[in-house]
Design goal:
The structure holds two protein chains of two kinds. By secondary structure, chain A is α/β, with parallel strands linked by helices. Chain A is built from ten helices and twelve strands. In chain A, helix 4 crosses helix 5, helix 5 packs across helix 6 and helix 6 packs parallel to helix 7. Chain B is mainly alpha-helical. The chains are: A alpha/beta, B mainly alpha.
């Protein structure tokens, strides 16, 4: 990295939450991200749309270092995640460093991934107590408030398998929020839900966006994208094809591929 | 002629109590060491680092691939020749050999348990900022335990009976005691009957303990109120009842 680039990253870091530069990622021979750039400002809600296999979920997973990248840089508030530079070469960072950065990023999974051996409340308080070493009583108080916020105050003592998909996902969001993240990543958070349960989860996400949370949302819910997004990114075949304001992407798409995709799903 | 008087006399003698105690404590110690050893061997075996997984594979290969009796004798006869000054008592040799052997079996059982946990669990734990060791301890192993506990119960059941091998180096556990007292007086059959009963007693009691443990791990355990409302005493203690799902078990085998 040249000095100029380094300064650029640092300077942008004041208002820039996420910066991804020329991300390349492949699984075997299949290139899933082919030089993707991304910039997300503090408080921004960025929605990534695109057909299956376009690389949007992989991009999101790279931001949290759930996937290793082949080349490129990803910065969270100016700090590189997953790698550090040694003599101009990228080497994977220490586990402790990756864990520390991850603890500041909330990740919501398509399949919820709640801890099945813990109640809803225990799921929420687990990481603040054991990762951040915050006092149990204080964490519990906050967790109860968070469960209330996602409309599940009465389900605090329920185990995940006794909850509906929508309820599980709302607990998962509360669990992520309990860490006081500065950034929330949503990976098709409503795709595994029965249609009648999608609304309750989107409502929570909408509320979160209104409170100013920085969010990157991978979704197939175009209504949500149009309503909530500050910026919409359309991905196809491992690259970002088009990005802009929701009105621009949905009402006046510039690229043929964007038009084709939207005409198929709208 | 069958000597009932010998049976009764032996049944309540301090010798047999002592022998049963020896069998029990050797089993508990060896199984405990085996579980701990097995956990680390399993984690090594699953590591992407070859310098960890290679030795773990070799370990499992050796201890599962050769008879326990031979391993005991190797240690008993071989150790003094390798380290002449080291004169381990019989019980120590038995505990070490049994632990090493059990470690190999527990490693495979533990690995199966860990593998059975959805990979999404580790991802979720890591996304919350947990490191590998913490995620293992708090998230993965408690879930793996549900898969590990039933075969672990069988392992301990086996262990209680396998301790009879210790008799070959003269240890006075149940079987050894029967031989020592029975051979000179030609009452070995009577004494073996008593010993058999004691083995059954130990394994049966263990069956109860195991069912209790399995039920504690049951995700259906829910809240205390639920326990009262939905589960009878027998359901909770020995897993009998109409309820389906994990955590059941028969008395002796522990499955």
């Amino acid at each position: 990295m040249s000095l100029e680039q380094a300064n650029g990253s640092k300077a942008a870091g004041t208002n820039e939450m996420v910066r991804a530069e020329k991300i390349v990622k492949s699984f075997g021979h299949l290139t899933v991200l082919n030089g993707v750039d991304l910039s997300v400002k503090r408080g921004q809600v960025v929605v990534i749309i695109g057909p299956s296999g376009s690389g949007k979920t992989t991009l999101l997973r790279c931001i949290n270092h759930h996937e290793k990248i082949d080349s490129g840089h990803i910065y969270i508030e100016g700090e590189m995640i997953g790698y550090r530079e040694v003599n101009g070469k990228l080497v994977e960072d220490r586990e402790a460093t990756i864990a520390r950065i991850r603890s500041q990023i909330g990740f919501v999974f398509q399949r919820f991934n709640l801890f099945p051996h813990m109640t809803a409340l225990e799921n929420v308080i687990e990481a603040p107590i054991h990762v951040l070493h915050q006092p149990r009583a204080e964490v519990k108080e906050r967790a109860v408030a968070l469960l209330e916020k996602v409309g599940l105050a009465d389900k605090a003592d329920a185990y995940p398998h006794k909850l509906s998909g929508g309820q599980q996902q709302r607990v998962a969001i509360a669990r992520a929020l309990a860490m006081n993240p500065k950034l929330m990543l949503f990976d098709e958070a409503t795709s595994a839900l029965d249609p009648e349960l999608v609304g309750e989860v989107l409502k929570v996400m909408d509320q979160l966006a209104k409170e100013g949370m920085t969010m990157i949302v991978v979704t197939h819910e175009m209504g949500f994208a149009r309503e909530v997004a500050d910026e919409v990114i359309f991905m196809d075949h491992a690259v970002i094809v088009e990005e802009g304001k929701p009105e621009q992407i949905f009402d006046n798409p510039q690229h043929e591929r964007t038009r084709a995709f939207l005409s198929m799903i709208l | 002629m069958f000597r009932w008087d010998i049976v009764w006399q032996f049944f309540f003698s301090s010798f047999i109590f002592q022998a049963a105690w020896t069998t029990l404590w050797i089993s508990v110690v060896a199984q405990t060491c085996g579980v701990i050893l097995g956990l680390f061997i399993a984690l090594m075996r699953m590591s992407r680092n070859r310098f960890l997984s290679g030795p773990a594979r070799a370990y499992i290969w050796f201890f599962r691939g050769s008879p326990l009796l031979v391993q005991v004798l190797l240690l008993w006869d071989g150790l003094p020749r390798i380290v002449p000054d080291l004169l381990l008592p019989g019980w120590a040799v038995i505990v070490i050999a049994f632990s090493l052997n059990e470690g190999a079996y527990m490693a495979e059982i533990t690995r199966a348990g860990i593998t059975s946990v959805d990979p999404g669990q580790m991802e979720a734990a890591k996304s919350l900022g947990m490191r590998y060791a913490l995620a293992m301890r708090r998230i993965i192993l408690p879930q793996a335990a549900r898969v590990i506990i039933p075969p672990l119960g069988n392992e301990f059941n086996n262990m209680l009976k396998t301790t009879s091998i210790a008799s070959v180096i003269g240890l006075e556990e149940l079987t050894g005691t029967a031989e020592i007292f029975g051979s000179p007086t030609f009452t070995i059959f009577e004494l073996l009957i008593v010993v058999t009963f004691y083995y059954l007693l130990l394994t049966t009691l263990w069956g109860f303990v195991q069912s209790w443990i399995e039920n504690r791990l049951n995700p259906d355990r829910l809240t205390k109120a639920d326990l009262k409302e939905k589960k009878s005493w027998s359901e909770r203690m020995i897993g009998f009842g109409s309820r389906t799902g994990k955590g059941g078990g028969t008395l002796v085998s522990g499955r």
